[in-house]
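Hi R.,

Here's the chain you asked about this morning:
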Amino acid sequence: MKLPLSFLTACFSLICLVAHPDAALSADSVDLLLPSAWVDSSTWAQAGDVQGSTQEMKWKAVTPGEKLLYNGEATRGITKNITSKESFGDVEIAVEFMIPKGSNSGIYLMSRYELQIIDSYGRADNELTVHDCGAIYEQWDASKPKGEQGFGGTRPSTNATSAPGTWQSFRILFRAPRIDASGKKVENARFIRVEHNGVTIHEDSEVPAPTRGGAEGPEVATAPLIVQGDHGPIAFRKLQVTPKKFD
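And here is the predicted structure, written out as tokens:
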């Protein structure tokens, strides 16, 4: 039986999507693995591969190449934060990252709302706090008494962290705060959903204010993305931002 050309074309397209998942990404996705995507990435570097130590906060080995973006080979991960040239509002972000034992980083959406990256491997769910991997970090008020300055934040619903030195993933659906014509915020930012290594750890988590360490000043409709680089080594083999329009 001779199959119609339209059927064969549809089958071929489906096969391509299964074999190459990235083909399904929007054409307007921004690849932040490129050093040129950042305002200043001079303290970071590209590599073909990295091996994160399972015993120490350092890279065990780095292979030359251009597949990854990483920090900290010469300085044990104490480099600088990097800021994207492009600004974003509502987004879907696909992330694949690796950290060695004990390392600490984070992704600041819109420069203000941090999703924690830290070595939380093995921690029980009932012990999780806003200082664990996948947490939406706390807010901070320096005027409060010591011990009360950090507040709020949302811990992950479960610990999906894998062992240090392994590749991990985030899928982030984020809705920016809504700002009216006068510049006043009328709706808070929200993490619609966050998946860590394929496990949902946040659903419809509201962020009433910027988290600790985020950009100062009023909340805005769009802003750059920041990756924390001054707390420890981290490598990315995917960091892809797709602009969205959420209701």
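One quick note: The chain has one domain: 27-243.

Cheers,
M.
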